[in-house]
């Protein structure tokens, strides 16, 4: 309990240090500029409070979270089955690893012009780009989980004449769930980074769209408030993913 309290204090200290560096940066590099005052912590927090009182902000948050959920769900639907197959077959791993590593190293944002030309503007290209970005950590972690399974459990299922479905549902899936959750946490971090530029693809709602709107209106303190809010929401999503992993890892077997 004592160590837990210290970790909270140190974490708060790091946040206050970050706030101080923000204030110092604006003071040093924006000295003599009236525009720089709009990017200061004081102006940002005032605008953030004003934004939190507007109903439209919550609609933008809802739309963005919905896109994250759809992109993550698509990545799970593709990544988990592929990861199970690749982890179970050395030949399939050899056949797919070069292609997957090649695709994984291509930035999802580089596909933006292509998917817009093929799918048009709207939610569909955003869902594709988010799923493309999130599928790799889920796939690779699932495959790693299959390869790390205790072979004695698999031998036991064969000796008991378990069906493939029983082996999958009672041994393999519970055994790789921790790895899948690790992949989900990594995927959420990637999704949150990719989401904002994706929402600049001609849509009319979402946090990325709202940032463009504040820029066009020259509302720079609101822009900084949105940047701060995106950081807070991303932090909360990551904390939720970590809590889910801890709950699973401490659950009775």
Question: What's a quick, concise take on this entry?
Answer:
By secondary structure, this protein is mostly helical.
Question: Can you describe this structure?
Answer:
The protein is mainly α. It contains ten helices and no strands. Helix 6 (123-147) crosses helix 8 (164-198) and helix 8 (164-198) runs antiparallel to helix 10 (220-249). The model has no long low-confidence stretch (mean pLDDT 83).
Highlighted features:
253 residues, mainly alpha, cell membrane, 81% helix
Topology of this protein?
Layout: H1 2-29, H2 41-52, H3 55-88, H4 90-104, H5 112-119, H6 123-147, H7 151-159, H8 164-198, H9 207-216, H10 220-249
Helix pairs in contact: 2-10, 3-4, 3-6, 3-8, 3-9, 5-6, 6-8, 7-8, 8-9, 8-10, 9-10
The beta-strand count equals 0
Q: What sequence of helices (H) and strands (E) makes up the elements?
A: HHHHHHHHHH
Structural class: mainly alpha
The low-confidence parts are: none
Averaging pLDDT over every residue, what do you get? 83
In whole angstroms, the N-to-C terminal distance is 25 Å
Largest sheet: none
Radius of gyration: 22 Å
Number of alpha- plus pi-helical segments: 10
- What would the principal axes of the Cα set say about the shape? globular
- The portion of residues assigned to helices is over 70%
Strand content: under 5%
Membrane topology: Multi-pass membrane protein
Main location: membrane
Organism: Geopseudomonas aromaticivorans
Subcellular location: Cell membrane
């Amino acid at each position: 309990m004592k160590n837990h309290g210290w970790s909270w204090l140190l974490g708060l200290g790091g946040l206050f240090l970050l706030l101080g560096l923000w204030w110092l940066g604006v003071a040093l590099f924006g000295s003599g500029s009236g525009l720089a005052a709009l990017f200061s912590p004081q102006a940002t927090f005032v605008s953030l409070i004003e934004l939190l009182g507007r109903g439209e902000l919550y609609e933008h948050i809802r739309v963005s979270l919905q896109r994250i959920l759809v992109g993550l769900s698509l990545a799970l639907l593709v990544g988990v089955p592929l990861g199970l197959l690749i982890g179970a077959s050395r030949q399939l791993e050899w056949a797919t690893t070069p292609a997957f590593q090649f695709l994984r190293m291509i930035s999802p944002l580089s596909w933006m012009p292509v998917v817009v030309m093929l799918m048009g503007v709207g939610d569909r290209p955003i869902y594709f780009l988010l799923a493309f970005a999130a599928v790799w950590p889920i796939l690779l972690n699932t495959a790693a989980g299959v390869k790390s399974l205790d072979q004695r459990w698999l031998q036991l299922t064969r000796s008991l004449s378990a069906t493939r479905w029983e082996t999958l549902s009672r041994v393999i899936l519970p055994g790789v769930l921790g790895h899948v959750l690790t992949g989900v946490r990594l995927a959420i971090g990637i999704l949150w980074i990719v989401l904002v530029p994706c929402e600049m693809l001609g849509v009319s709602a979402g946090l990325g769209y709202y940032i463009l709107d504040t820029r066009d209106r020259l509302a720079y303190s609101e822009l900084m408030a949105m940047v701060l809010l995106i950081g807070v929401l991303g932090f909360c999503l990551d904390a939720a993913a970590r809590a889910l992993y801890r709950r699973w890892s401490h659950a009775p077997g």
